[in-house]
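Worked example

This section walks through a single chain of length 334. The input is the sequence exactly as stored; nothing has been trimmed or padded.
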Amino acid sequence: MIVTYTIPFIDYESFQRELGKSEELVELALYDLHGKACEIGLVNNERVKAMHGPRLPLQERFKKQHYQAARIARTLGLQEIILHPHKVQGDENERLREQVKTLRFIELYAQETGVTPVIETFGGKRRVLKPEEITSTGIAMDLDTAHLETLACLEIILNNSNNIRSIHISGIIEEKGMLVQQHIPITIREELMIEQILAMNLNGRLGIEYESQHVEESISDTKYIRLLVQGYKALMDADFTKAKSLFQKAVIERKGYLVAYLQGITLMKSEDYTHAIKSFEESLLYHEAHATTHLFLSYVLRALGKNSRAEHHEKRCIELDPVLEKDILLTRTQ
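Given that input, the structure is written out below as tokens.
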């Protein structure tokens, strides 16, 4: 899995200026196509790994603009483009009629341009394609975590790995059940999703997409997530020295439960139980209600004969996730 952050294309000079702020891979966001085709043709950078197309309805009357964006994607060496499903005015019957036309438009788009449309997820009843309809039709999906509830995102990640081509990840702020802010720096909510994405070993792309005022955070968080992805791969390959090095670099970019948790697992597998305890305890400072951290912490505590402290974390683990009781019983016999 590659990791990118989004740079909106305003003009060639500003894009190059933003590109020069880091060495991370990027997604070029062509939200507004008007008058920019020639300038985008100047972009020739191997760090551009994705493109977001214009925010126009997926309809025949906008075919020229969409196909022009597809040609630009191909000049950048890209085989996919992210597109928005538009809203439909009218009742549900009208939405379904429009959906048939949209599905045909998407099919012809892929056939005639050679570029695969990747449809972004949105909530709401008026979208021509809802998330569950994207998955049921088998269309390539861009899961945007800022547009859906947490459980809906996790369910899509768990059950639709074949559909997901990319994931846009960013934080949100909710007040009284209402979404009041989107596309802000990640929080524990998004780290939980990243943990699941790593565990699923998903292919494709994970893209940071923050509002423009969070440029610096988008760069540092992209580096942080890239280091987590690389460190997790090293961990799964049992290259614990490399994993520890990558996770230590990740901590420089951002401290949080996930990197401390992964450091703890790496140290535990290296049988460095003393330092593993410190990492798991640090992880719990950021996210106390993480059952697996309590499970692993109890294991390393028992390995050092600290049974009383281990029992405390075993009880807390079972409180949070009763299914893990069998794993606790198994660790006691090892």
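What to look for: Strands lie at 2-8, 25-29, 48-52, 80-83, 116-120, 141-144, 164-169, 171-175, 178-184, 205-208.
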